[in-house]
Design goal:
This protein has 267 residues and is α/β, with parallel strands linked by helices. The protein has one domain: Alpha-Beta Barrel (TIM Barrel). It has 10 helices and 8 strands. Strand 2, helix 4 and strand 3 form a beta-alpha-beta unit. The longest helix has 19 residues. It is globular, with a radius of gyration of 20 Å. The chain starts with a helix and ends with a helix.
Length: 267
């Protein structure tokens, strides 16, 4: 009987989620959907293909205005490859990725509140959530404000409405803060301010700095850019070689939030 109980106990332990003991990466991308980035062009690989080859699931923080009928992107600087943003978002879901809220208009919300009031800010986030829900079938849980800027009163109201706000601020435990990749500084044919010696090394340096404080779980914030797509295979491979596992944001939060709570209770 004792042997049987021991075996059952072992099986139960093995069946428990292993997330809390893992080295986890939540890979996230802002400002999409951008079909020409996700599917690629004759001159650049597609982000979907890169993630598939690496067997990595990501979380996309999308602009709500893109999820309107027949919209394919911004005609000023994006390439129309004949695929709408809505179809690209549906394809992301089909491939196992997640979609979350990057507001509807993608304006800087602190300035918007000063000019238009808090109600407008809340409405912009909610409108983004509404069009996302029309595509995904469920209301997004997470919001990443443009440039992480959000007035305190709007933050409280959005949290009261059930949203969780992504931030780089010290108001959150370090495991729940985004790492700003600075990949937007590397966009274009001749970027001047891209981190040296490379974007990959810059991101790894930020991760290593957190590891020195015992942190082995990280949310990486990138953008849907062709230059970012090009560096992804190297970054993902290097992180895998260091023992990291890639999960969606919801999986990450389920694991890390509970672990962080346990640590705080134990203090």
């Amino acid at each position: 009987m004792a042997r049987r109980l021991a075996v059952l106990s072992l099986l139960f332990t093995l069946s428990l989620p292993i997330f809390a003991a893992d080295k986890l990466i939540a890979l996230t991308f802002d400002d999409g959907p951008r079909p020409y980035v996700l599917y690629g062009t004759p001159d650049a690989p597609g982000l979907f293909s890169v993630l598939d080859k690496q067997n990595v699931k990501a979380t996309f923080f999308v602009m709500g205005w893109r999820l309107t009928p027949k919209t394919w992107g911004d005609h000023r600087y994006e390439t129309n490859i004949g695929i709408t943003c809505i179809d690209a978002a549906k394809e992301a879901l089909k491939r196992g990725h997640e979609i979350e809220d990057h507001t509807y208009s993608h304006v800087e919300l602190k300035t918007a509140e000063r000019k238009k009031g808090e109600g407008w800010v809340i409405g912009d986030v909610e409108q983004g959530a509404k069009v996302i829900q029309a595509v995904t079938g469920s209301k997004p849980q997470y919001v990443r404000p443009p440039d992480w800027i959000l007035p305190d009163d709007a933050r409280r109201d959005l949290e009261h409405r059930g949203f969780r706000i992504l931030t780089i601020s010290s108001e959150n435990p370090i495991q729940l803060r985004d790492i700003n990749s600075l990949d937007y500084l590397c966009a274009g044919k001749a970027p001047k301010n891209c981190p040296k010696p490379s974007l990959t090394s810059s991101v790894l340096k930020q991760i290593e700095a957190r590891e020195k404080h015992g942190i082995s779980n990280h949310i990486l914030a990138f953008h849907e850019l062709t230059t970012t797509t090009a560096m992804m295979p190297d970054l993902i491979s290097q992180l895998k070689s260091r023992g990291y596992r890639f999960v969606t944001l919801k999986e990450y939060m389920a694991a890390v939030s509970s672990k962080t709570t346990e640590q705080n209770v134990g203090k």
